[in-house]
# Entry
Amino acid sequence: MSIRIDPDACTGCGLCASVCPGSLITLEAPGGRACIRRPGDCWGCASCLKECRSGAISYFLGADIGGDGAIMSVRDEGRALEWIFRRRDGTVLRISVRRDESNAY
Ligand code: SF4
Ligand code: SF4
# Structure
């Protein structure tokens, strides 16, 4: 499993479910909390992570994708997304990416 959804932080907005290319995320009820179905089918595209405005989704950077067990989350800063990496040794790395500059090649 690549992601985890914190039910206490989830507002039930449904944005994550609307963008998951595998339709793996569902709401428990309209307006209810999001949960991931068939987590083994998640291929870690991070689309849900980028859409969540409440920081309810965490992404596990495991060895299968070359990670070291760090947890990645995203904070919405309006014009930018702040990517937060919490490493296993307790250190935190924050990278802010402007929305209008992301995906610009
Ligand atoms: S990381 Fe991608 S595939 Fe996995 S649950 Fe989120 S949107 Fe779906
Ligand atoms: S985008 Fe975040 S707050 Fe909205 S339903 Fe998904 S996990 Fe919950």
In short: The longest helix spans residues 15-19. The pocket of iron/sulfur cluster (ligand 1) is lined by residues 2-3, 19-22, 24-25, 36, 42-48 (CB under 6 Å). The longest strand covers residues 70-76. The radius of gyration is 14 Å.
